[in-house]
Amino acid sequence: MSNERKNLTTSWGSPVGDNQNSITAGARGPVLIQDVHLLEKLAHFNRERIPERVVHAKGAGAHGYFQVTNDVSQYTKADFLSEVGKRTPMFIRFSTVAGELGSADTVRDPRGFAVKFYTEEGNYDLVGNNTPVFFIRDAIKFPDFIHTQKRDPQTHLKNPTAVWDFWSLSPESLHQVTILMSDRGIPATFRHMNGYGSHTFKWVNAEGEAVWVKYHFKTEQGIKNLDVKLAEKLAGENPDYHTEDLFNAIEKGDFPKWKLYVQIMPLEDADTYRFDPFDVTKVWSQKDYPLIEVGEMVLDRNPENYFAEVEQATFSPGTLVPGIEPSPDKMLQGRLFAYHDAHRYRVGTNHQMLPINRAKNEVNNYQRDGAMRFDTNGGGSVYYEPNSFSGPAETPENKQSGFAVSGVAESVPYDHHDHYTQAGDLYRLLSEEERTRLVENIVNAMKPVEREDIKLRQIGHFYKADPEYGTRIAEGLGLEVPKEEARS
């Protein structure tokens, strides 16, 4: 920071002669409306907060770079992945999901893991979580799900009954609920957790050949989680614990690192795999589709200003580059619209022009005007397309690849309804100590639920995943497994 003193000015650049005293009619007279500096300060102060994110409101961010360590050009033509050793600047935002902007970092909640790559072909956003699956698999259920995670409209308190009522009526949530209630539900820090793209995406190579892909960021710091009691203590004593830890680690040169791996599935396997590969509540077995190393992400620079870089950062799974495309994942398809739309509302229609979001390569299009347009607004250049004045033109080689679709246009669920196998497999992978903590966490979370039928319905789901799983939770709640489940 420079020690040279600069002149204080108004927002329009005029020097300020007195920043300590308002202009008044005499020593005791009322304040005059002609004190435009006072009015500007108060009016700007009233507008300093943009709306917080509906989800992922509380977060921390950092700059860094991504470097390719393995040749994956046979799978994708994405330029930033084109050669070993290539470095791409990037920005990441970690977050909780349900809490407000001032909420505690150490609550039991999934963590957002949103990465923006500033590639030479435009920005690429990978907007995932620290878990490989999600609670629901169709975007039409997302507003209802998030309502249950937010505050009750009457009491303005969190509502466990709503949470478990929704989950018990949405059995596809069981896999993610099991992860959330396990030790992984409270990471020790942002540095000590993995990140996942969660959804299935499509990679396309230079020959137009396509594969399905899933992303895995593996922390090189090792996975560490917080004990429940310590997490509660930190939530009260240092609610910004994760934010502080990330900033301090980078500040002292202890740069966090993650290795990026992908799973690759041939297109034709999607029709025969034992789980629907586009269902975000399911994982692909790494025995079937092993992890392939891609590169390393390193965070080496803290933001200079939180609001300008972290709060105004906008991410969307629809921010794509040539060689990376969406899949038919229904949850992803909804997010392709919702995220861009949220940013247009929250930050403004020109949010992509802000320094933290602006692409490093030249942006050429016919979008004009809108609030806070702070560049030349296209000047006097041609403002429509097609045109005869050599304006920016499409590049047919960058058209997205196609994939076959069939069927009747109607509201239909995924074909696969096995919501229990993967959750049960995860339970059985846990050690006895981990199972005990999982059961204890679920029991404590369900005790405040006001209706017994909701508890019993959810116990039935746990029992279907693994009889021991359901029985132990039932016992912890002083209930019995529903007879119809016990007989099955």
Automatic annotation (TrEMBL):
<dbReference type="InterPro" id="IPR018028">
    <property type="entry name" value="Catalase"/>
</dbReference>
<dbReference type="InterPro" id="IPR024711">
    <property type="entry name" value="Catalase_clade1/3"/>
</dbReference>
<protein>
    <recommendedName>
        <fullName>Catalase</fullName>
        <ecNumber>1.11.1.6</ecNumber>
    </recommendedName>
</protein>
<feature type="compositionally biased region" description="Polar residues">
    <location>
        <begin position="8"/>
        <end position="23"/>
    </location>
</feature>
<keyword id="KW-0575">Peroxidase</keyword>
<dbReference type="Pfam" id="PF00199">
    <property type="entry name" value="Catalase"/>
</dbReference>
<keyword id="KW-0408">Iron</keyword>
<keyword id="KW-0376">Hydrogen peroxide</keyword>
<dbReference type="InterPro" id="IPR020835">
    <property type="entry name" value="Catalase_sf"/>
</dbReference>
<feature type="region of interest" description="Disordered">
    <location>
        <begin position="1"/>
        <end position="23"/>
    </location>
</feature>
<dbReference type="InterPro" id="IPR040333">
    <property type="entry name" value="Catalase_3"/>
</dbReference>
<keyword id="KW-0560">Oxidoreductase</keyword>
<dbReference type="InterPro" id="IPR010582">
    <property type="entry name" value="Catalase_immune_responsive"/>
</dbReference>
<comment type="similarity">
    <text>Belongs to the catalase family.</text>
</comment>
<dbReference type="InterPro" id="IPR011614">
    <property type="entry name" value="Catalase_core"/>
</dbReference>
<feature type="domain" description="Catalase core">
    <location>
        <begin position="9"/>
        <end position="393"/>
    </location>
</feature>
<dbReference type="InterPro" id="IPR024708">
    <property type="entry name" value="Catalase_AS"/>
</dbReference>
<keyword id="KW-0349">Heme</keyword>
<keyword id="KW-0479">Metal-binding</keyword>
<dbReference type="InterPro" id="IPR002226">
    <property type="entry name" value="Catalase_haem_BS"/>
</dbReference>
<dbReference type="Pfam" id="PF06628">
    <property type="entry name" value="Catalase-rel"/>
</dbReference>
